[in-house]
Every structure is written in C-alpha cells, then in structure tokens.
Amino acid sequence: MEQGKNSDRYVVVIDQDKIEPELARETVINYDPLNRAGKEGGFYIDENEELHIDEEDVMEAHKMAINKYPYEGAIKMIQLPAEEGEKVHQFHDNSFRLYGLPAPDEGSVVGIIGENGTGKSVALKILAGDIKPNLGDWENPPEWEEIQERYRGTDLQNHFKKLAEEDVEAAFKPQKVEDIPKAYTGKVRELLEGVAERKNVEEVAEQLDIEKLLDREVDVLSGGELQRVAIASTVLKEADIYMIDEPSSFLDVKQRLNMGEEIRKLGEEKPVLAVEHDLATLDLISDRINIFFGDPGNYGMVSNALSSKDGVNRYLEGYLPSDNIRIRSDEIKFDRTKRSQVENKPVVAEFPKFTKDFGEGEFKLETEPGKIHDEEIMAIFGENGLGKTVFAKMLAGAIESDEGDSPDISISYKPQYLDTSDAKVEDAISEVANPNGRKFETRIAEPLELEPLYEQKLSELSGGELQRVGVAICLAKDADLYLLDEPSAYLDVESRVELGKTLKRFARKTEKPLMVIDHDLLLLDYIADRGMVFKGEPGEEGVSTEPKKIGEAMNEFLKEVEITFRKDPETGRPRANKPDSQKDQSQRSKDEYYEQ
C-alpha cells in the first residue's frame, strides 16, 4: 500500500515468543480486514509457525484485528512520523528530500547517526560546499542571498555566508577506504607528507600506530591499515571544517580509542562532523549528536542537537522527546540475560590446537583447542594482526596449518573483504540458494532487506549493501558451521541490530553454530554465547584462549587492551569509560573491565 506525503504510516512489531499460532489464526488473521475481503497482504502464519505481515500492507484498520489478540504486548502497531518541515534540498521531482541540517560548531565534534539512505552524506556535501542547497526548488534554485535569509538567526547563517563567499575549505575522510589504492599509488609516507599542513607526520603516525606502515606501498595495506592512513591524511590537512565518515570500520577496540583521541584533539581546534555507526566510538568522540531519520532513499529529517549520551540513548529508544517524534517502531535493547546454555547442547565439532609459522621474521600463531555446540554463537575477538582470520581460514581448511587438522565438517565462510563483479545480486544468490524459497525469504532475505537489491550489480552496491549480500550468501549455503569475518562493517545501527537478530534466529532455528569475528563489542555482547580472545604482538605473534563464557571473554579482552566498559543504566549498552576517570579506576581496582 503506497503511502503519500503526510499520510498516516504504521508498522507492526510482533513478539514471536508471545504468539500462539492457532490463537493468532482465530483472532488476528480471522479479523484482518484484508483477509476478510479476500485480498492479499493481510496477517499470515508462515511455515515456521510465526505471525507476519508485510510492512507496506499495514493500515490503520489493522488495529481492530490486533486488539482481538488477548496477550498484551505481543503485537504492537505504531505510527511513524510523516514527512514534514522546511526542505533543505531536493534533487528533482519524486527524488530524495532532506529536511534540516546539523550545525558545525567551532571547537567541537558533532556526531551524526542514522540509517543509511536518510541523507547523512548529502548533509556533509552541503556543509562542505559540494552541493548548493536549493531549498526544495530544483527547477529554479535560489541564490545565496535567499538561502542566507532562510537561515537568518540560526547557527547555520554564518556558515552559509562563508560558503557564498567560497571561504570554506573542507577535508573529507571517505567511507570506502578500500578504494584509496585506486586513486593513489606510492608509499604511505609520500601520501601523508603530500598533505601534511597542520601537524607533523610522525606525531600523527605514532598516535594512530602506523609508524611501521610509513615505508610500505599503499596498495598492500589491509582495510584497517587503510582506515588509519585515511584518518591520518585527513587530520594532517589544514581546513576550515572536517568531515569524518565512518572512521571505526575495520579498526579494533584499541585502535578506535586511539583514533577517537586524535579526532577529539582535532575537534578542540576546528569544527568536525563525524558519521559513525559504532555506538561506543560515537559516544567517545562526540560533544553533541544529531539524529537522521525518515524513509531511507526517499526523505531524511534531522533532530535537534542532543548531548552525546542522550543522543545515543534516544536513538536506541526510537523516540525524540524534544521533537515529539517516534523515529522507529521499537526500542533497541541490549539484553544480556537470554544466553543459550550451549554447553548442554550436542557438540558439532571439536577443533584441535593449531599452529602456523609463516617463516623467520614473519607472523606465527598458536591457538587453543575447543568445541562448538549446536546453535551456539561464538565470538572471536582481539586486536588486529593477531591471527583471527588466519585461525578462521585454518579451521575452514583454506590455509594449511603446521599442527592440527581441520575438523571434518562443512564450513560456510564469509570473508572480511568481499569480491565484487558485474553479476546481479539475485544471480549471485541463486548460485547457492533459491531466492524465492520461503525459508530463505523469511530467515535471511526479509530481515536483511535484500529484495530491493536483486536487480543491482554487485559492483554497484554500497559497502553496507554488499555486506548484507555477503552475509546472506554465507547463511544460504548448506553447512555444519557458519564462519563470518567482520559482518558489521559499513552497516548502520539498525542494520547491525537486524544482523544480530538474524544471526541469533538463524542459529536457534537451524540449530547450527556460528563463529563471528568482529570489533563491534555491542554486537558481540548482544549475540554471543561464548568467546575466544586473541592476544600477543600484532603482526608478529598471536595466541588464543580456549572458548569461555562471553562475559569472561569480554573481561579478559578488555583487560588485555587496558580499557574498561561500564553498563549504561538506561539502555544496558556497554560504554567505554574515559581513561583515569573515577569509574575507570573503580572498575580496574575490582578487576572488572567489563561491567555486567
């Protein structure tokens, strides 16, 4: 059902644990107005005995059917915000519209959070001067005088005055750092010295731990190394405003804190706008936060500025009290109590002690043996360069180990970096599964929102879209164990939450185990039953622990990298403590690096 501008839009949220299929058939499905009229699009029970309705078919009349279901809170119908406000920009008729902008602030970092497709990149380009705002009139765009008049008396008035005078120099840290070698060839030192204007290359290289990379060629760097080089390149430039797009992708926790400190220093001198989906990093680097929301790909709106803590918490809650707007159908919570007792489940595979020595002066790895059980999700985490991916490849038989044989099971592996081609998404999926199969649709395609991508080529996808396709292809294969390397890279918060739900649901429904390598501690905290921690000297030597309960593994890892995390009392999310703060010192004294 198409929703017009300013029409009522609703979504339905269903708690499947509270749904009794037969009762749902007698009440919700029986009284559904579309079902009663013999039309398509009403509530239905799928082959997994779960209740569903497609979002585009929800209408106000469904309230009556929902009210027939007797269990309170099992089915919620929520009205979403209508498109409204003064337009900042519209590209052409029936195209994306942006309402509102974050205001750059001298000497502070403005954090930006929101679903992909709600205008974050458009806003940055407008503030950088790459796009002149047309105030919604794409046919007869206004002159700068009219634009400045529109924003008279606001924090943006002076910024638009400078843009009109072409007096704004912007520095961008791009999102897709893996494209850097396509644009630049040569050594890292040459790249950085070519842009260094405000700081010394060695000083920034030490802060971001890239001294050892300075004499290496750019085209041999890993994703995490390219990310740090891109951040260094950006903060070294002399500019009036800095745009930092997703600086945490591919970085481990320690690197994220180092990066965050460098961005904070930059923010003390110049206006910085940072788009970030890792909530712990966003919380750490931001002085205030603007939330982007709306209908991805169609329109985006921007919240009032909020404090760092309130910005993240209101975003998770899905409600903006200052704007009196609900931006999401349900609240995002980090419930740590629903862990599966996997140790009581049958063992799917035992893996031995692995060793691998790549030669004198090269990397060597030694991992502890372990077991993985039915429906278990095991987190694999540690600093970059400690052999997590090497372990995954030895487990999958893609790398031959010096000691230890891969278990005799089939493993479906999603690599860290995904290959792109001109193949269509639907064709790529068809090689491993039927895209129209009901199980694939309900378990994988619908939660990962794949159908709109089917006709696109892999090479045309954004980083987050390609990531979702990679996860889908991995889960679609018939295997004994599923191994996913950094599945959260480039995903926005909603997509990460949906990814977490998808992985948990997949493990429980199929009773198949998953191993997940990732640096997003909130995601790992949310999905994992147990974890393995990798320690050692990055790039030189790595060792792993045996599998442990996730809380114990988190605590050991954070102690290894000397960071403490507290539990936010409002949302339950883990938050990084400021070093040497009272809370940091208190937790260290109790050996509680991960507050549970």
From TrEMBL:
One of its GO terms (molecular function) is ATP hydrolysis activity. The keyword Nucleotidyltransferase does not apply. Keywords: ATP-binding, Nucleotide-binding. InterPro entries: AAA+_ATPase, ABC_transporter-like_ATP-bd, ABC_transporter-like_CS, P-loop_NTPase, RLI1. Residues 53-319, 349-561 form the ABC transporter domain. NCBIfam families: PRK13409.1 (NF009945). This is Ribosome biogenesis/translation initiation ATPase RLI. The lineage of its organism: Archaea, Candidatus Nanohalarchaeota, Candidatus Nanohalobia, Candidatus Nanohalobiales, Candidatus Nanohalobiaceae. The gene is rli1.
